[in-house]
Amino acid sequence: MNFLNDEDGAVTVDWVVLTAAIVLLPIAAALAVAGGAGDLTTEISSSLTVAE
Fold first, then answer.
1. Strand, helix or coil for residue 6
2. What is the distance between the alpha carbons of residues 28 and 5, in angstroms, rounded to a whole number?
């Protein structure tokens, strides 16, 4: 019954979850910023076209 007392698997799961969060959160943030930047660029372009 050493399997029931072994905690190595739990540590592995923790590391997988933490690594996934570390990798995916910056990607999600970059996508959110890119979407907002694209909208802002379109708005600025429209404003400059009207100002001409």
1. coil
2. 37
Flag whether pLDDT at 35 surpasses 90.
no
Give the C-alpha separation, 26 to 29, whole Å: 5
User: Is residue 1 predicted with pLDDT exceeding 60?
Assistant: no
Helix (H) or strand (E) holding 50: helix 8-51
Spatial distance between the Cα atoms of 17 and 25, rounded to a whole number of angstroms: 12
* CA–CA gap between residue 16 and residue 9 (Å, rounded): 11
Residue 1: strand, helix, or coil: coil
Give me the count of residues in the chain.
Answer: 52
